[in-house]
Amino acid sequence: MYSKEEASKIRQQFWITFGKYMKPIPSAEGLPINWINYKTGVKHLFFKMDADQKLASIAIELTHAEDSSRGIFYEKFKHLKPLFHELMGEEWEWAPTVTNEFGVPLSRIQKTLRDESIYSQENWPALISFLKQRIIALDQFWSDVKPLFEAL
To answer: What is the pTM for the complete model shown?
Structure first.
């Protein structure tokens, strides 16, 4: 097992490696982009990537404090679900209400890769491939639908 400091350094090195790998890849609009800290440009709507000792995940998180506002955004995503799945090429998990690690309610659309550890460098190619493919597809989807969410 790793100390907190060692684990932190390994996680940091993974995200640096992922960032370097993704840096030359432009956004769907052909512009430079910070893939790790993806900015959707819409308040309370985030694309989140995570990896730990058991899994990796990529998610769309809707963090509006009011259930009604969050529900409007979630319903808009549900309406776009056929396009989303077509661009992603796979089914994702859809959860209208979950609670994050801080006890805050949110809506989440997520894909998870299980049994791959960020703490084992031999797993990094699988983790990077999993995240890369999906964040690029998610960026393409977002490029197509962002105006629909800016109007909300």
So the answer is: 0.93
